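Input structure tokens:
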């Protein structure tokens, strides 16, 4: 009977009569206290705040990705990738990588030796909460002398897909291969 919210406890009184006391107020207090604790932790940043699925937050994630790449900090850049990222780039179509570690192993040196520039062409939020972003991708190889890069190339279109994980947008799909990018755009309805 103690398992139910309305359970009662018999208490002896001084007069010898048995008094009944409900455990309901205790349980209500316990539930209210738990809710207040969660709310306090949330307001103080104790819980991860989900990224808003807005144009501004998605653009900010893309800007952060480019800025992190251009600092040439492989570890910080890798934290913007989902664990299960699927990554293909135009220079080596046969080198499709799956997983953050594979992408780091293949692209870590590129992060260290190139600058990146993205022009956002369009984006679309998908019903599953993810987002597809089409960009014009500029890879610019260092060193930069006299205001010019050693070499560069442009991939247009490049498709990136993003989802919120751990309170921030993370990239889970990237392709700068034109055929794959066009297929991804068609699949997501953003031709």
């Amino acid at each position: 009977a103690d398992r139910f919210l309305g359970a009662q406890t018999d208490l002896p009184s001084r007069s010898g009569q048995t008094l009944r006391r409900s455990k309901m107020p205790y349980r209500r207090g316990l539930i209210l206290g738990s809710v207040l604790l969660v709310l306090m932790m949330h307001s103080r940043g104790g819980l991860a705040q989900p990224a808003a699925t807005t144009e501004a937050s998605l653009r900010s994630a893309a800007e952060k990705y480019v800025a992190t790449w251009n600092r040439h900090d492989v570890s910080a850049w890798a934290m913007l990738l989902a664990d299960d990222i699927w990554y293909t780039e135009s220079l080596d179509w046969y080198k499709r990588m799956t997983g953050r570690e594979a992408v780091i192993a293949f692209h870590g040196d590129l992060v260290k030796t190139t600058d990146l520039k993205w022009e956002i062409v369009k984006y679309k939020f998908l019903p599953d909460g993810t987002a597809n972003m089409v960009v014009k991708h500029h890879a610019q190889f260092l060193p930069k002398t006299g205001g010019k890069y050693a070499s560069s190339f442009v991939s247009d279109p490049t498709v990136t897909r993003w989802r919120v994980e751990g309170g921030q947008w993370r990239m889970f799909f990237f392709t700068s291969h034109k055929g794959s990018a066009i297929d991804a755009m068609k699949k997501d309805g953003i031709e």
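Strands lie at 8-12, 18-22, 81-88, 97-98, 114-125, 131-145, 148-165, 168-175. The chain has a mean pLDDT of 82.
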